[in-house]
Design a protein that fits this description.
- There is one protein chain.
- The chain folds into five domains: about 220 residues, Rossmann fold (3-Layer(aba) Sandwich), CATH 3.40.50.300; about 80 residues, Elongation Factor Tu (Ef-tu), domain 3 (Beta Barrel), CATH 2.40.30.10; about 70 residues, Alpha-Beta Plaits (2-Layer Sandwich), CATH 3.30.70.3280; about 120 residues, Ribosomal Protein S5, domain 2, CATH 3.30.230; about 90 residues, 2-Layer Sandwich (Alpha-Beta Plaits), CATH 3.30.70.240.
- About 25% of the residues lie in helices and about 30% in strands.
- It is built from 16 helices and 32 strands.
- The strands form seven sheets. A seven-stranded mixed β-sheet has the order 2-3-1-4-5-11-6, sandwiched between helices. Strands 15-14-19-12-13-18 form a six-stranded antiparallel β-sheet.
- Strand 21 and strand 22 form a beta hairpin.
- Helix 3 packs parallel to helix 4 and helix 6 runs antiparallel to helix 7.
- The radius of gyration is 33 Å and the shape is elongated.
- The N and C termini lie far apart (about 80 Å).
Amino acid sequence: MTKKGFLPSALRTFAVVGHRSAGKTSLSDMLLQRAGVTRAVGRVDEGTSLLDHTLEARRARQTFEPSSAWMSWRDHLLFLIDTPGAQDLAHVAEMVLHQVDGAIVCVAANDGLAHGAVRMLEALDHESLPAIVAVHQADRPHSLTHLLEDLREHTDRKVLALQLPFLDDDGQFAGVVDVIEQRVHRFDPDGSGAFSTEPLPDRLRVEAEAAREALIEAVALEDEALLDHYLEFLELPLDEVRRGLAEGVRAAGYLPVVFTSSALVAGGEALLDVVVDLLPAPVQTQRVDVPDDDMFTATVVHTTIDDEGRPCALLRVWSGRASASTAWAHGESGERFKVRKGFSVRGPRRSTPVYQGPGALIATWDLVPARPGETVTHGERYALRRPPLPPVMVRRELVLPQSVHVRDVRRAVQVLERMDHGLDVVERGEVLQLHARTLGQVRRAVDWMRERMGIRAEARRPSVEYREVPAHGTWGVEGVHLREVGGLVEEYGRCALDIDPSSRAEGLDFTIDVDDQDLPQRFVGAVCDGAREAAREGPLAGFPVIGARVTCVGGEYDILSSTEDHFRIAGALAMRTALSQTGTRLAEPWTVVEIHAPAEGLGALINDLTSRRGRILDVQVAREAKVQALCPERETHDLVARLSAITAGRAWFSARRSHYDLLPDALVTDALRDCGRVHAPFELDKVGS
């Protein structure tokens, strides 16, 4: 039993997901109002939503991060997580789906099955997660037939209408038809949410009976005994229909559809009933493998910063019970930390935990050193399976004011990474790079740093890591280091190098073609070290030199005045002299990109890639198109924006470095200008200084 008397089997932990502006938050607020949590339905556009409670959400009238609330309904305890619907935050909603036992897919009635809803259906199918479709704002014009067809096209589950929209004599949405009961629930027009039950009118009987027959057939086909009964009597007991329906939904085989409207405060109670009757309890699922039912394990759902600047972590409990008096630990690293108190939350409101066992959502304002999806325990080292991280599609460098040092932004960086698991901050020397999935993540990170931390950073495209390759070969180039004092040689080293361009522009290959008696091995190694150091800056624009075989072919030393340092200087002199003789050409990095996009945008996608020097390697077309291409890295820095324009944000890609290839001469000037480099010849007199 929980603190308020709820049995573990009477728990439901679910998320509300869907496309942006489909009404997810309004639907969630209506459920809270019908469950008695709030007196009135919160309105996103009025800034009164209980769940969109952050400053950013209220200002933009948009959900930017998950928000949780609990409620009780029919002696059940329900934990709800409202999720963002923007496409650049879809990975956040997908993370939440990994940490719940079921979901409501909110579909805007007049918009149909938008891409955000399709993507969530795909994620649900991939996870085999039970789900319900709520057609929201059903008071707006829509086509039920088209909507059901779209649903069936984008999921392998059996789509079953539990309700049909009921229109009055003026053609206005006035209620719903209960398909199982074959009765009408007419909502009061005053927006109170109350409804009355009426007999099914004759004009809807054919459609309602067809929907009921489809539902019963689906249930009967999954059970041999029920199928025999149905074939004999063409009917099933309603209790058996409801039982079979619940089993099918919990097995992710059925996708039930209901209708709601927050504008009319309609359908909330019926949807809560469907959640209780059809979605599974935590004890009925095997979502994760826990080592011991009594061992406390939880995962971080999300971390946010409240209006007072304090971090708040939301945790999903998988096993055991949360205890603030026990030492906590990061499940993977074992890092210990202290949680003084946990809370049950309803948006920004917090209270003593109503329940802290499996299925519970617990919030704490103590620092939890873990990112979304990572495991925390009561001291034991154990990590639950982490969901896959979204691919990095955007890389940007943070440009900081001169008054701000990199060290000063590390705290902000840590908070950003804990708030968004799809955002990483990578230090490259004194430069900070943001690695993200979308441009929107980068913009929000920069805005958050400015507004919350007072750090006015800017994000720019990262510099391309160009390289230089020798234009041709040169042989027997000498490097001599000689220092005399009073006519006596005190420092001496001489070497000779051959430079041969390599067929593959990767690195530098060092070989030796000199007898050990002419030049001892320790001096040869020093020559190679000096040559390698000199190759860090090429003669064209100061980029590292690659793509050559460097051979030490000769040298001379003095047994009294030669040291390894002297030959290191000689090797650097020889290398720089050789490169100044051969000259270098600019080489650019190429990447292999794998793009997943809607099939209808394939032609425009291929045209875009080839127009930017891309080389198509492979194309596969099924439910979506998958294109593998070889592209110059400089052309991938804005690929996410181009894909968004071509596919309306419905494409994603992954990239991996492939090789270096020569940059066309016509692009060299632009490349050097973009990265702020100019021709910088060697200053040989500075070698060894």
